[in-house]
Amino acid sequence: MDVSASEATTRVSLQALIRLQADARALKLPSARPARARQAGLQHSSQRGRGMAFAEVRLYQPGDDIRSIDWRVTARRQAPHTKLYEEERERPVLLLCDLGPTLFFASTGAFKQVRCAQLAAILAWLALSAGDQVGGIVFDGSTLSVQRPARRKKSVLRLLDTLASQQRSSPDNSASEITLDTALAEARRVAHTGSRIFVISDFLNISESTPSLLGALARHNSVSALRVVDPLEQQLPHSGRFAIAGSEGPVWFDASNTSFQKAWQEKIDQHEARLAECFRLSGVEATNVSTQEAPAVSLKAILGPGGRVG
């Protein structure tokens, strides 16, 4: 097998994650425009921002822009009142990227750990180009790396380096001490109120605590779940012999075996129902991303107009 082809499907390098900046540009994210001053119509502010957001209404003062007069309040109170605006600051973007043992797998396309790293990298480039602060929590079962949000290219490169270095190069059947729940609990400590948070995982190892942890994180932040799935995890082929990794080596199964098909489907249905309930209870919106689809294609359908992450 060609080495470069193997790396493209089982692992992704730092250089490849850096090159995904071109994919981010292709999503046509508009650059952040300079925000205006607190009173609309005055000089430009040196602060970066997304635009103007309504703040409050107060009595009209000489020098206020007449275009900002709130005529409804003026009529109700029989005195001129004007609307005040404030700049919308850049929003911290926090990326939780799962590179645990279950992510070292794919039946088609690229390994789930590769897709997770690629999704996180593109989102990081998009956020940086929008003038947002970018940070991340990368966890692989034995290690949890935390990078607080910052608006610097150097910070994004450091995050990408972590994503590349913490991917697995071989199966690891040892017990995982650092789980998705661990990362969610850490995110509550790291995230500033109002952060944009993406949780990128296969969500195979959710627990009874996961809904409350996700819900607590979503209470004061905008949280989206990107669930990386492989077609084999959702439906078996109707025939053929396959091998899957086990704690004591590969386990072979016959997909044409009716009893095995039924047991497999029941297990899938149970997990899907449990996961749907988890997202329902937490109030977090989840989107499936397939291992067989290029991450930029998946994100184009997920993100807002122009690839906006906010």
UniProtKB/TrEMBL annotation:
DUF58 domain segment(s): 56-273
UniProt-recorded name of the protein: DUF58 domain-containing protein
